[in-house]
Amino acid sequence: MTATPGATPTIVLVGHGMVGQRFLEALAERGLTATHRVVVLCEEPRPAYDRVALTSYFSGKSPEDLSMTDMEFIEKHGIELFVGDPALSVDREAKKVTAQSGQVFDYDILVLATGSFPFVPPVPNKDATGCFVYRTIEDLLAIEEYAKNSTTGAVVGGGLLGLEAAGALKGLGLTSHIVEFAPRLMPVQVDEGGGAALLRTIEDMGLSVHTGVGTQEIVVDASGHVTGMKLSDGSELATDLVVFSAGVRPRDQIARDCGLTVGERGGIAVDEQCRTVSDPSVFAIGECALAADGRVYGLVAPGYEQAETAAATIAADEAAFTGADMSTKLKLLGVDVASFGDAHGTTEDCLDVVYSDSRAGLYKKLVIGRDGTLLGGILVGDAEAYGTLRAFTGSVPPVSPESLVLPAGAGAPAQLGPSALPDDAVICSCHNVTKGTIRGAVTEHKCTTVPEVKKCTKAGTGCGSCVKVLGQLVNAELEASGVEVDKGLCGCFSQTREELYEIVLALRINTYQDLLDRYGRDGAKGGDGCEICKPAVASIIASLAPAIGAEPYVLDDIQAPLQDTNDHFLANLQKNGSYSVVPRIPGGEITPEKLIVIGEIARDFGLYTKITGGQRIDMFGARVEQLPLIWTRLVDAGFESGHAYGKSLRTVKSCVGQTWCRYGVQDSVRMAIDLELRYRGLRSPHKLKSAVSGCQRECAEAQSKDFGVIATANGWNLYVGGNGGATPRHADLLAQDLSDAELIRLIDRFLMFYIRTADRLERTSTWLERIPGGLDHVRDVVVEDSLGICEELESLMAAHVAHYRDEWAETINDPEKLARFVSFVNAPDTPDPVVGFVPERDQIKPDLPLLSIGVRPLEGSNQR
Amino acid sequence: MTLAPETTDLKVQLQVGDDEWFTVCDLSRLLPGRGVAALLPDGRQVALFRDRAGELYAIDNRDPFTGAGVLSRGLTGSLQGRPFVASPLLKQRFDLATGQCLDDETVRVRAYTVRAA
Ligand code: SRM
Ligand SMILES: Cc1cc2nc3c(=O)[nH]c(=O)nc-3n(C[C@H](O)[C@H](O)[C@H](O)COP(=O)(O)OP(=O)(O)OC[C@H]3O[C@@H](n4cnc5c(N)ncnc54)[C@H](O)[C@@H]3O)c2cc1C
Ligand code: SF4
Ligand code: FES
Fold it and tell me: Which of B37, B51, B64 lies at the smallest CB-CB distance from A824?
């Protein structure tokens, strides 16, 4: 079968990986998809995905999350994409490509983007059951499946990918080994000193490292399953599973077969335009190409540049790929490693500046030219400066190199602000975005946030390693363009919420008035405050109440005037002035008796009843004076307030878990109830939601929660910073395989750290994106205790737990407070006449016309 | 309608006619910074407030943006020395002395004269 070519010239792309996809985008940007028929042959069973982020599959990213292919884009541009159909051969004479399915495509231009294959050393039994490579989503799925019945795993190769693979095996609960032939880890990127610091950190994480030894043979049992490996030093390592990560080789077979020139050590030879040296109709880009500078690039950024170059050349624009830098930053859990530029100091006459502290696992080296030019460097243990340093590479930094590597505190380290960078400094190397472009996004395109700038410039949307510098740049630019960012909480306080928290805690200030009079802005001192700072300060005081000697009960006379309306009535105000009531149903578990009680109360008070999105029941349409009566019956039946009204813990959703579900591996319901009872009533900068799933299937949607817990065979994985709502965000994995006690301790710390440092009305998701250092910083603080505050965080939480009291019960037992629950102070028995209801679907809904009948405009005013 | 029992303390009174004062409640029922609603004999609702300095204010209780009788349940504050309440529903602020909406100059609610006697 031969596919008929259209009248339009045809471009056939072989390989739909990261670079292939980028090439398609470049074609579309240049309008070439309109003038050409574009055919894509994709070998893998799924279109292009983010291979760089492959390992994040193990921290909860689904294959769909990793996808880089927008099917709308493919359709819109009329691209013919054949998934799961690799090219088998190329006939250059006839200009035809034959695919596995038997289809034959004529081409005018052929682009090879076939990537690499993992190199597997030719050791005996290398193909035994239990041997894997680490390159595709399918590889990961297979490893994950096999790991379920394994306890130990070994990775052959201690390079960038090997370490990533070893981290993943550990995450799967395996005892993990790394076997590296070279005398140190990451031999390509780091030197001896860096390797030593890295080794220490990796071993501290519980991985066993064997350097300077080769793998001689894979040992198998009678059924052909891996049981261990023989090493070159004569020793044997017992393992159930082996992952080969000993480097990659260009996939150039199809090119060899059709007579294209390939390099001595592989790679399809191309010129600076990415055209093969043998055939002007054939291009090669990405990891399969041997670039004009004689190198095969194993990184995505150079591949992207090649994709742009090839597309430009096809469009008859001028472009050239002459080489790229090999900067990398390791994304392995808990280790910071970065190398950039001429990391090994191969430039003639270059000099080193080295700071090394093996006790702290720190190693930083800069390679400097004779004239002071920064040529490259290696950072291990602390890669904070990576983004800035990389951008300075090739120029003379404005401060002395020593000051760039010394740790904070040692001889005043230089703060190299982004302002020091020249406009043509490349900030994002994945997308080749310069500082000038980013500034332009702020000044000309009026972007005011990092996400907006990301969207506008693409910066930061590749490997993500530049996002930090990006944030600094955007802020600096906003400030420079006169957007005076007053970080004060409101018109009354010039401090941020975090600063007020610190003041309240340190000075044990327990009333709002005291805080306002001492720390308010000049015009606000002595005044009545405002509707923004009152609830914010009320929340701070409430979450610290036991520690600062304040009254934790929110309706206490001093705290009551500060509470938002909902908190003040311990119920949620509805559009017609009535209220809704949500009792706590911890973990969503409820007895039939309690369900009946809710039903009876709702029936007796004529309330509209609805199952909420948070696994509990909401009763709407209560008038103020009915609230205490409703609560009394709920409290009698054993219910408590569900705090649906407060900026505090809402629900901890659960799935049914191990007790009933055939897949469950832990008791998710019990854990959800424990968590909900522990954190109930905790006042926080914004509401807190949580969920616990009994297995990786994630029926409780824990990854969309502020703190979500997913059961593993060995305990619990804790995810943080998830959000549904208007701007959904998948939660990030904070820690794995925790015991019950470890889990709770970590959540205690996490929540208290959030409460301490977040802005008002800032969910954990936005907080995590905003705070400097992001997730890594939070992990340092709450897991590693880098600030030494964990004990304090834990004791603050312990105080909250010990002092918790149910607000409803407290209120119905206090006649003075109850007197506030009336529609009219002078007519306590009279209901508000504008709160009325009409029937709908066998229940009630607010009588809205009644609200407009109530109009009594003041003469002369123009009311709506 | 049952009216709140009288006590010997100071009373909050609203001016409803030239020389006519309507007694609402004991002054002690007004927590500084928090409002209460009162029902007038003609069916109107009034929101009464007491600020930190002890000053009393009264405006219509009806939120003109939603029609609900809720202004008494809003959070109060002061802006350049002028007291205001923010509607608990959609958060528009109203000057307590004049009833003027601070977020929409075309909207104003009625303000009442109020005293403690
Ligand atoms: C009742 C309920 C809808 C329902 O009928 O199912 C509901 C109702 C309200 N939601 Fe919600 N949300 C409800 C579940 C959710 C969920 C789903 C969930 O929790 O699983 C979400 C998305 C998940 C999330 O928060 O990440 C959700 C995202 C929001 C948001 C957006 C938050 C965000 O970060 O983007 C708001 C607005 C806000 O909080 O600022 C909001 C605000 C509200 C308010 C409080 C709006 C208001 O001020 O009146 C509603 C008051 C309810 C009342 O009067 O009782 N509601 N809301 C659900 C109560 C759950 C519960 O049992 O407590
Ligand atoms: C775990 C991991 C982590 C990484 N981390 C980083 C990192 O942090 N930074 C970085 O810069 N790089 C990283 N890389 C490398 C990066 O993923 C590659 O440089 C990039 O994917 C190269 O893109 P490519 O399109 O050339 O090749 P690929 O993405 O491999 O795509 C090639 C595609 O072509 C297909 N193919 C091959 N032959 C045929 C055929 N005959 N017909 C049809 N299709 C065919 C293959 O199946 C494949 O899907 C990482 C790689 C891995 C595996
Ligand atoms: S998350 Fe797992 S354990 Fe829980 S209900 Fe779903 S499949 Fe079952
Ligand atoms: S450098 Fe990779 S996303 Fe910017």
Answer: B37
Q: Please provide the average confidence, as pLDDT, over all residues in chain A.
A: 89
User: Residues A811-831: what's their mean pLDDT?
Assistant: 90
Domain B2-116 part of CATH 2.102.10.10: yes
Encoded tokens for A1: 């079968």
pLDDT tens digits, A602-644: 999 999 999 999 999 999 999 999 999 999 999 999 999 999 9
Our mutation pick for probing the ligand 4 site, out of A300, A304, A430, counting the most ligand atoms within 8 A of Cβ, is: A430
Closest CA to A186 of A335, A357, A367, A376: A335
The pTM of the full predicted model, rounded to 2 decimals, is: 0.57
For A818, the enclosing helix (H) or strand (E) is helix A815-818
d(CA A168, CA A390): 28
Give the pair of three-digit tokens for residue B67.
């029609």
Out of B2, B69, B78, closest to residue A527 by CB: B78
B2 touches chain A (CB under 8 A): yes
Residue A281: strand pairing partners: none
Q: What is the mean pLDDT of residues A17-36?
A: 95
Domain ranges across chain B:
2-116
More confident residue, A409 or A318: A318
For an interface test with A, give the residue of B46, B78, B85, B89 to mutate (most A CBs within 10 A): B78
B114 touches A at CB < 8 Å? no
Contact (CB<8Å) B3/A833: no
Name the residue of chain A whose CA is nearest to B51's CA.
A528
Lowest mean pLDDT: which of A425-434, A573-582, A591-600, A733-742? A425-434
Q: Is the CB of A147 under 6 A from ligand 1?
A: no
Which pLDDT does position B7 carry in this prediction? 47
A852 contacts in chain B (CB < 8 Å): 67
Cα-Cα end-to-end distance for chain B: 23
B69, β-bridge pairs: B62
- Which one, of A864, A22, A94, A774, lies nearest residue A471 by Cα? A774
Give the per-residue pLDDT at A855.
44
- Min mean pLDDT across A90-99, A274-283, A762-771 is at A762-771
What does the pLDDT read at residue A470? 85
Are B65 and B45 in contact by the 8 Å Cβ rule? The answer is no
- How does pLDDT run across A462-513, given as a tens digit for each residue? 777 787 788 878 888 887 777 666 678 888 999 999 999 999 998 999 899 9
Query: What residues of chain B lie within 8 A of the CB of A761, using their CB?
Result: none
- Say yes or no to pLDDT of A863 above 70: no
Closest C-alpha among A679, A675, A731, A671 to residue A701 = A731
State the Cα–Cα distance between residues A437 and A340, nearest whole angstrom: 22
A749, pLDDT greater than 50: yes
Chain B residues with CB-CB distance to A561 below 8 A: 31-34, 76
* Surface of B (50-109) touching A: CB under 8 A: 51-52, 60, 62, 64-70, 73-81, 83, 86, 88-89, 91, 93, 99, 106-109
Q: Which of A528, A560, A573 sits opposite B70 (nearest CB)?
A: A573
CB contact under 8 A, B31 and A561: yes
CB of A359 less than 8 A from some CB of B: no
Q: What φ, ψ does residue A262 adopt, rounded to 5°?
A: -120, 155
- Contacts of residues A723-731 at CB distance under 8 Å and 24 or more positions apart, as own/partner, are A723/A763, A723/A764, A723/A765, A723/A766, A724/A689, A725/A763, A727/A765, A727/A766, A728/A704, A729/A765, A729/A769, A730/A60, A730/A61, A730/A65, A730/A703, A730/A704, A731/A60, A731/A702, A731/A703, A731/A704, A731/A705, A731/A706, A731/A707
Nearest CA in chain A to B42: A856
Query: CB–CB of A573 and B88 under 8 A?
Result: yes
